[in-house]
Amino acid sequence: MIKQFSYSQALLAAAIAFLAWSLFKFTLQVPAILSVIEKTSQTVDSVSPKIDDIVAEVALVRIEVGEVRLLLSQQTPAILSQVEASLPVIQQVVAESEYYSRQLPALLEQIASIEQQVTILQESMPAILLRVDSVVKTTNNTTAEAANWRPHSTLYLNEIELSREYIPQYLTRIERTIVDAKTIGSEASSGIVSGFFKGVISLPFEMVAGLTGIVDKDSRSAKYLTAEDVALMQEKVIALLNDNYQKKTIWQNVKSGNRGTIIKGKTMTRNKQQCLNVTFNNHFGSDKETLTEIMCIDEKGLWKVI
After folding, report:
1. 8 A C-beta contact, residue 246 and residue 232
2. Element holding 258 (H helix, E strand)
3. Phi, psi (degrees; rounded to nearest 5) at 6
4. How far is CA 92 from CA 82, 98, 159, in A?
5. pLDDT bracket for residue 74 (50, 70, 90)
6. d(CA 86, CA 283)
7. What per-residue confidence (pLDDT) applies to 186?
8. What does 272-296 look like in DSSP terms, one character per residue?
9. Residue 267 pLDDT
10. Model pLDDT, residue 162
């Protein structure tokens, strides 16, 4: 009896053959697998002593994690409170940001307007520069004129300073003249007559005789001072020497333009007489001279130059 060819049996035979071949290939890989298993065993043997340490460290880590969780649970309410407190500020900042954002269009319009004005100004710069040049030129001319006037201004300031210095003396002299006018009747016998308003000044002969030496005959003052200048100096020095509180006086002759100051100095005794060191600073024109004299009072109460 002839058996028919079966595909299923052929497939089974092929499968058995493939399995046998796979087993063969596996057996070939067994030495390598055993080697890897041996190495793994050695690694496990070397690591196993450290497992206890790792377990201990893991336990410590778990404890620290628990403490961190506890700390977070304790601080979380405070953090939430701070966040809630910050919310109004954040809302205010947001509101201000919205307000500023609404203002940006107007600000941009202003910037655009400024840019237009700057453009107009740039276009006008040539004319402005011409006007500036004109002003600079005028300023230079003014400066030159001021420089020309500066010497005159210095003279005017000097005159003003002298006027400020002389005014108090004029007022004092007028006050004394008024007082003298009230008592002129009782003092007529003394021979002292003041012509302040007329410019004529005279003293009794005995006084004049003692004061002729206040201007040295060889000095420049003797050359340039007039008789009225000397008379004014005589009157002023007598008033100064008889005033215990006054230390300095000024004289000026409007007619001659000459002027000067008289200063009382140190007190001394000469021939049992009370004496004073008197300094005369005389100004005539653009020149000046300083004279120093010693003046003493005699038993009659008259001052004389020693």
Report:
1. no
2. none
3. -115, 125
4. 16, 10, 72
5. confident
6. 87
7. 38
8. TEEEEEEEEEEEETTEEEEEEEEEE
9. 93
10. 63
Q: Residue 58 contacts by C-beta under 8 Å, 6 or more apart in sequence?
A: none
Amino acid present at 69: R
pTM, full prediction: 0.37
* Residues 288 and 299 sit within 8 Å (Cβ to Cβ): no
d(CA 181, CA 55): 129
Could you tell me if 238 and 221 are in contact, meaning their C-beta atoms sit under 8 angstroms apart?
A: no
Q: What is the pLDDT, as a whole number, of residue 32?
A: 83
Residue that the structure tokens 């009896």 belong to: 1
Residue labelled with tokens 């740039």 = 122
- For residue range 12-71, what is the model confidence (pLDDT) as tens digits? 888 888 888 888 888 888 888 888 888 887 877 777 777 777 888 888 888 888 888 888
* Best CA proximity match to 208, nearest among 185, 180, 237: 237
| Six-digit token string for 265 | 């100095």
Q: Which amino acid is at 265?
A: G
What is the SS3 assignment for 53? helix
Structure tokens at 293: 């004299």
98: how many CB neighbours lie within 10 A of its CB?
10
